[in-house]
Amino acid sequence: MKILFVCTGNTCRSPMAEKMLQWLKPDWEVTSAGLSAQAGAPMSVNSKAVLQEHGLPTYHVAKRVTAELVEAADKVFVMTEQHRQALLSQFPNRKTELLSPNGFDVGDPYGGSMADYEYTFGELEEMIGRRFL
Question: Which segments constitute the Phosphotyrosine protein phosphatase I domain (predicted)?
C-alpha cells in the first residue's frame, strides 16, 4: 500500500503523520509532501521534539506535491478541506480524503507552542488509529 499525506509546508502535520504510519505499517510505502513546501527544508523543531518524545524517527526533508507523488499513491490524505480543494483543482481525476474520518481539519501547529504540537500529534494519532488499525 502506498500512502501520501499532504499539508501546507511539509514540516509539521504531514511528516508527523508519515512517521506514525511508517512505524505502524513498516511494509507500506508512506510519504508526505506540501502544497507550498520549500523543498529541502527540515522538519520543524517542535515536530521533531514531539516525535522524539514518542520514540518515532525524526529524519525528514520537505518536498512539494508533484504529479508523480499523487499518481503513485494508492491513497492521498490531506489535513484540511482547503488542501483537498487545492489538490482537486490540480488533479481533478484523483480522489483525495481528509485524514479525519469525521471530516474535521487538522489544525496547523506551525509557530505555536510545544503544547500545540503535542495536541496536533494526539489528533493525528487518533485519526491514524481510526483509519488504519
Answer: 1-130
Domain ranges of the chain: 2-132
User: What's the CA gap between 114 and 99, in Å, rounded?
Assistant: 22
Number of Cβ within a 10 Å radius of residue 4? 24
**Catalytic residue selected from 108, 116, 130, 131:** 108
**Cell output for 72:** 503513485
Instruction: Tell me what pLDDT residue 63 has.
Output: 98
How do residues 84-112 score in pLDDT, each as one tens digit? Answer: 999 999 999 999 999 999 999 999 999 99
64: annotated active-site residue? no
**Closest Cα partner for 5 from 35, 47, 25?**
35
Q: What is the pLDDT of residue 79?
A: 99
What number of CA atoms fall less than 13 Å from residue 70's CA on the CB side? 21
Once rounded to an integer, what is the mean pLDDT over residues 35-64?
A: 98
Q: Does domain 2-132 have CATH number 3.40.50.2300?
A: yes
